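Sample entry (386 residues):
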Amino acid sequence: MNLLALKMLLNDRAKYAGIVLGVMLASMVITQQGSIFVGLMSRTFAAITDAGGPDIWVMDPKVQFIDDTKPMQATALNRVRGVPGVAFAAPLYKGLLRVRLDNGEFQNCNVIGLDDATLTGGPPAMLEGKVEDLRRADAVIVDAVGASTRLARKPTTPGGSPVPLKVGDTMELNDRRGVVVGISLNTRSFQSQPTIYTTFSRATQFAPRERKQLTFILVNAAEGEDHDALCERISESTGLAAYTRDQFKWKTVMHFVNNTGIPINFGMAVSLGFVIGALITGFMFFSFTLDNLRFLGTLKAMGTSDRTLLRMILLQAVSVAVVGYGLGIGAAAWFGHSMSGTPLAFRMTWQLLFVAFCAVVVICMLAAMLSIRKVMKLEPAIVFKG
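Predicted structure, serialized as tokens:
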């Protein structure tokens, strides 16, 4: 009977294609829009991801997300170092500074100042040069995307391409000279602004004069130390806020979720895909069942139980769900891969695939329920009418 159910489904190729198309559309839209949303939210904490190593981030208690910088007093560093369980603590400067370009225009850049001694929190990977080159005079490292786009020099010929910033070039930050000693590979930031690395002492010279210039403190816990417990200990001892790397990422994401319309916009797109997919699938599956009522009535007249007919319809729904789901996530994955070299944010996770699968199952079960109701009320005598 299962083989017969599949033959009935595949025999009507037009209806079968329509049902699969509805499921595929829902799966593709949910996965694609969800992946863009996840990718966009991942960029909000790009600086945390790129900093890598530190177990704990310490900051002013009023900081709401990674770019909400509220400098602390320099003495906070020694107070954190004195907390039991802290193996290592390094200062980090993070600020938004203006870079003067060759043509006289200005470009806002994220400037990150690393601990002069250890260079903790540096770029995740280098395309050219080494992180240790920051110890040279006036040295800075620029991320590859910023160097080839917003910080690139004007074309040398009319209509030509911009000339990417390269090692050895100079720039001006707050009337001070910076020499490019390396090009780094960074995660694109939420605002897509160029990222510039230098040492902490040099970053404070580039920045406008302020009484407080210590933005964050990066902490490594002692071996075997519980990170959550150490965060509480640091907060109690210093009065500062301390978060693990994952906690700070989540805090940053929730700020954008709660204070922007991004989740609503993507939620509406995903909901629309779900509704359209459900309508197409439900209509086509119900139409397919109506076209096969005579055959189902014949089976019922021959003694086939309602339970068997129910199993046949569910098998048809599951078959459509698997094929449509696979095609949908395949199309979404192809889209993400094709856009990998563009500024579009796209990050497909297994949790998102699971959500899309659950949505497809719900759609197909709703479509099957419409058909099941019709079959359960089916009278075998319909075979002998007309």
